């Protein structure tokens, strides 16, 4: 019999194989698992003895959709209102509601649902069924609950036109909108699958979407991941049998061949109607809808994902809009990504990813997360993992490597101040590129990783933007920014926008491009670099050349990067997933310091991307100019993007500039831009001086509190030597886990 929680036991097989990996060697899942999974799904029909249970507000179209789904699947159809309630009561639903009142009606309705026994059927619930817990628990035991998610404005319009008189809870002083909003919490509690239904979508189309969604729910075989350095034509049958799923790539981080994980069949696409259905909802709701499509429920069920998203964004961000869009000047808008606890865009991923990671990993294995940062990632990842539950902190620890002299004083103070019992910062006497390359080499050193698993029962994982899970939350805020412009009446849906992003490791830019692929009408993706402008040169010429290049320390240290890791994912995409070509290019970069794209690939790249760069002097001048004219202070990275946007935009459409960090993090440079003659070297004093300007936005609350607590905190410093780094890692494992 197909049980509702069928996927949890299947995923436990994955976790057991991963536990075995931790206790022995870092091996991929057994061939047997994929065979079990494949044979199980192929031997069952879409329904079997399970029910498809349609849930949603009154007016969502459950009855008509249910009839069409039943016809297509040739199975019985049960409408709870007509076939259960009215049959049981021998009166209409509206008469019953008038007879017993709101609260008694819900109880009587729940009792009737408890008596329903069906299998292999399509069941259309009433709009108020989900408010009765016992009834829903009963019906869900043998069913897949599909939530028909229709925008509230559409529902209100439909109900008004039908003049419905049997809305449970409707009374003088209680509006229909309030009732619909109140009920959402119950729908979100019970559903397994969400189907977005726009205003003008025909019931036939909704029925097809329901069937497709149920097929996806039942079979996660299609949502596997591959390395950017593997090729479909070159993969053996044995490799195909070792399938990797979302929970695997979150845990593993980097592919064993040195490549980066990408979804084998690409990202999901949203229709224009589906995107438009998200215009009126909150950021948290947008995040849940988008991430549900990107993460299979076999990996993380929708209810758990909702809990994780609420934890990440519910109280940890100082702005209720989470990622607000603010008009700057002319047709330029700022996407403010600094309202999280550590004041940078990294918080969007790193408030979420630790909880995803903790859910996906097996309970029987310890994990040490390795992170390399050029500044903002460090404090964000330390803060994120420090918010895990105590039980998770005991089995998950983190070490953050950063260039000791390559971050701002405030960034360093943050990283020291954010250290917790399971999270530490280590300064390295080198630059970010060394830190990032060292971590990649450690992950691909099977002797070292094998030693750690056998000797200490500890596996290594990555939380840098090379981890696939880091990219998904960034897709959300780029999509949300566009929807906000539509909601504000700046544009109508379908009108194009340009995006300009200060770019170092290419993850933020890649996420914007992914949002475009998923249906957001982004026209140009503009990469903004500082004087470390290797990406600018590459986008213009197709030549990625690190020869004769030395990293230049700038006022925008988060983009002081020469090797852009996530560029590999983009090149894999435009090269039609030719893993052999990607391997060749990046091996050449590693061994010879350069590579050149073929002409056809350069043409594709230049259709998607344009690029420019900005000097430190122009960066500071932009900060001063914007403050003088608007009273708004840009951080140094956003100023780089502003300068490049001014140069490259054609002003035929709005441009959204990603404001990736709060200016408070770079106080010395900001004070210099504002032409303050004497600058106190104490970071806390610098923030107090900035706060006296009463500028927009105000000083970041979380940063100020962290610096007050930091004092003269300690951190470890080590030489730029692989053996020294590995020794540090082993010592930290011994101290925390043993």
CATH topology annotation of the domain at 317-340 and 470-547 and 554-710? Rossmann fold
What is the arithmetic mean of pLDDT?
88
Strand content: 5-15%
CATH class of the domain at 317-340 and 470-547 and 554-710: Alpha Beta
* Distance from first to last alpha carbon: 44 Å
The proportion of residues forming helix, as a percent range, comes to 40-55%
Radius of gyration: 27 Å
Query: Helix tally?
Result: 34
The biggest sheet, with number of strands, parallel, antiparallel or mixed sense and barrel status, is: 6 strands, mixed
User: Uncertain segments of ≥5 residues (pLDDT<50)?
Assistant: 1-44
- What form results from the Cα inertia axes? globular
Q: Could you tell me the number of beta strands?
A: 20
Q: How is the largest sheet built, in terms of strand order?
A: 8-9-19-14-15-18
Query: Architecture of the domain at 317-340 and 470-547 and 554-710, CATH level 2?
Result: 3-Layer(aba) Sandwich
Helix and strand content put the structural class at alpha/beta
List keywords for this structure.
single chain; 738 residues; alpha/beta; Rossmann fold; six-stranded mixed β-sheet; five-stranded parallel β-sheet; 13% strand; disordered N terminus
